[in-house]
Amino acid sequence: MSVQNRPLSPHLQVWRPQMTMVLSFGHRATGVALAAGTFLLIYWLVAAASGAEAFETARGLIGSWFGRLFLFGWSLALFYHLCNGIRHLFWDAGIGYELPDANRSGLAVLAGTAILTLATWIAGYAARGAF
Amino acid sequence: MSLRSPLGRIKGLGIAHEGVGHWWAHRLGSLALVPLTIWFVASVVSLAGADYFTMREWMGSPVVAGLLIMLIVACFHHAAISLSVVIEDYVHHEAAKIASLIAVKAVTMVLALIGVLAVLSVLFGN
Rounded CA gap, A20 and B26, in Å? Predict the structure, then answer.
């Protein structure tokens, strides 16, 4: 079989974006982003192990507007990856493969991500006594 | 008709010569991460703005330290496998692929080890 005649995977440019493909791409993108975000998790734990001064520096950095923006993005990616990951585990068990089901579970993932992210930030600010 | 040997079939060996162990470990790790992630997010929310001593007290409890270590191990195991799959899919230059696969293994192992040691040092240092 010549190289030119091999079947090609669908080009992103010519396919109308669909729920299943966009969410699948999002799962990889958030996964890679979360992997990069683990540097912050380890930094936070190391700071707590290193002493009061190091922890205060980390606390200032994470609590700054930039740090909070980063954390917001992180929580959004985390909840998306968590919800969609559960969707993937159901697929691995052979459940929910039909297209209408996959579209419905995709919508549930988006709704779950939004609700969990908002609830987490409201709870976080409430824990600090913002309300 | 299958050309696979009975021994190959029973050991789950396909063309990759490593069976489904990789796939299965990935799924089990994901399953463990579901409750661990929910616990961790809830903890971070309750720790929002916590000072040094609150943080040390939290990390220094055996239950929290144990769960944190499980989270770190499961998280970096998951990250190492997942990033390897992404690299295998998108990096086609053989040398670059092998170099990135090794880098991912090395970085995730070092980060996981640093995290576990940080938790242990607080656990035993309090």
Answer: 21
B74 interfaces chain A, CB cutoff of 8 Å: no
Please state, in angstroms and rounded to a whole number, the distance separating the CA atoms of residues A17 and A24: 11
| Residues in chain B closer than 8 A to A34 (CB atoms) | 79
CATH number of A20-34+63-127: 1.20.1300.10
Give the one of A42, A78, A123 whose C-beta lies nearest to B37's C-beta: A78
- Give the whole-number percent of chain A exceeding pLDDT 90: 79
Assess contact for B74 and B33: CB atoms under 8 A. yes
| Fold observed for domain B6-125 | 3 helical TM bundles of succinate and fumarate reductases (1.20.1300)
Give how far the C-alpha of residue B109 lies from the chain's centroid of Cα atoms, to the nearest Å. 9
Q: Nearest 5°: phi and psi at A117? A: -65, -50
pLDDT for the residue numbered B4: 75
Contact A86 B34 (CB under 8 A): yes
Q: Does residue A1 have a pLDDT over 60?
A: no
pLDDT at B8 over 80: no
Q: What ipTM describes this predicted complex?
A: 0.88
Q: Which two tokens stand for residue B15?
A: 């063309």
